[in-house]
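Operator note (shift B, R.M.): manual run for FAD-binding PCMH-type domain-containing protein requested after the automated queue skipped it. Running by hand, logging everything below so the morning shift can see what happened. Input copied straight from the record, untouched. If output looks odd, do not overwrite the archive copy; leave it for review.
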Amino acid sequence: MPSAATPAPCYFLQFSFYSSPLGLPFFFTATTIATSGRGGLVAAFTGRWELLDASCIARNCGRAVSSPPSLLPFVSAPRALHASTDTTIMRFLFNIRNLHSPTAQCTSKCEEDEKKRFCWLRFDKRFFGSAAAVIERNASFSTLNSDDVSYFKDLLGEKSVVEDEDVLLTANTDWMRKYKGSSKLLLQPKSTHEVSQILKYCNSRCLPVVPQGGNTGLVGGSVPVFDEVIINIGSMNNIISLDKVSGILVCEAGCILENLISFLDNHGFVMPLDLGAKGSCQIGGNVSTNAGGLRLVRYGSLHGSVLGLEAVLANGDVLDMLGTLRKDNTGYDLKQLFIGSEGSLGIVTKVSILTPPKLSSVNLAFLACKDYFSCQKLLVEAKRRLGDILSAFEFLDNQSMDLVLNHLEGVRNPLPSSMHNFYVLIETTGSDESYDKEKLEAFLLRAMEGGLISDGVLSQDINQASSFWRIREGLPEALMKAGPVYKYDLSIPVEKMYDLVEEMRIRLGQTAKVVAYGHLGDSNLHLNISAPQYDDKILAQIEPYVYEWTSKHRGSISAEHGLGLMKANHISYSKSPETVRLMGSIKKLLDPNGILNPYKVLPQSLKSCH
Ligand code: FAD
Ligand code: MLT
Ligand code: ZN
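Run finished. Output pasted below as returned.
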């Protein structure tokens, strides 16, 4: 899985100004902006030109700067640039359109000399992979200062308060390297008490925070948008108990999913959740995103498997909802609010989860279908004929296969004789080896005779099964390697699902590749548009079309990844105004200052901290 992050392009403006004798604010007009031959930027304000040198910009920014070919077409000028004489952080209004980087953001720094003050201004707005999605930092949030850092060091110890630039760069950057924040602080609490104290303090100071797990989220929810303090509970990774009669596992929320899978395997149980990011994602992150994954068709969603939670609210209150009962009808089931709330209502610190027993017989078939209709019919048949041994039903199209073959090392097509249009993975899990295998083989024979399958292979051992899964699970990585990608995670009725893919191919023509795969057994399409570059013209072809199409078919614009930053403003495509308003009220009740994962999940209009 890629981990090292490259810095986002960062664009700077510099201007100088003199103190106003009357103490009135100064107004500057940005008339034009262009790149200089040396890679710096030239900015003109009120007719004065300043030439900025790229290395000088880099020094002040503290990270590398790459210049766009030209900013000219991207800046609508003139715009008022408003600076007040007594503040170093100037408010300024810029309307920058079509800026290539979805994450443009800079820092500010001021230097004094005898006559004038030079300021490096930051673009205090963020751009992200969504049309018209430009947001501003909530000005009522405080900015981190040295007293805050000292407080955290006293509370957590020096080692758990991270200011190291390299570590921060990674923590500020999401898995896709599409979203980048500029947090100056990463906190690594070791106990619920520490999480509680951190939040209590941040709430009293109005300091915004981002809860972060394994940082494998795909909607920009796990990284700061601006300077939010990052709280990662990866150090809270103890397994607390496993009840070997009921299969109920209780653990801290920082446990890595794969470690839980191995632990349970050793004790004869399985995690009811499995996904491609298992090596990095944390159970707290899984619960907070209500992750779906590869086995939801068998074990259902985390809303069913999670029996209890411990969560810390913004004000530091610890909610002990860590039940281990399958049945408990005493009032509102509040833990459900935290499952899928993406860190916007509290920090999950402990989880209790029901884990099914490990069964001895697992079979995996890798199949080819000539068209989407056959995949769909195959699913109906699989549900009917395999019944309770069916444990996964995944699909990918030939563009997906092409992509993994081209971008992942050591991957080969198990059905190489010709390129098929669609591929399906069917997994069964049961307790009787010969019966299960016979059942699957009979099903496959029937499907082959009925023309639903054009070719197929049954895995002979665990290594072959892993190589089949690698094709499906490696898709997000292959897409990343292929370059910029617009990702959509949609719930759409199975029979309509692939119509959208075909329509997108027609809409986009040769400009981008449309790659489709997903959890067909759960009606969950992963629509990926792999483009040569992030480009607003391409984006305009995709959004809002994809959302409108999904909404028209009564689908969901987030099946399993969440809304994060990417879709916070688009929630209304899947939820009614009344529902969104109620969500806003719940947010306000649990986090009145709005410090928990601001700008995410809910529309920007619902921000707070007054
Ligand atoms: P992060 O990415 O760190 O955070 C995700 C969100 O949860 C953020 O909003 C964050 O603020 C919040 N959060 C994290 N920890 C906590 C906590 N303890 N308390 C409160 N809030 C918290 N997702 C699926 O659903 N199904 C898949 O099949 C799937 N496959 C994937 C495959 C790959 C290769 C990758 C890279 C991602 C995949 N994902 C999938 C997306 C992602 O892995 C999941 O959303 C996962 O659950 C995120 O867990 P995390 O620990 O990495 O959380
Ligand atoms: C998957 O199913 O592979 C994940 O949800 C990730 C993705 O959508 O790319
Ligand atoms: Zn998925």
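Quick read of the result: The mean pLDDT is 83. The chain has six domains: 3-126, 132-232, 239-354, 361-475, 483-573, 577-609.
Leaving this for review. - R.M.
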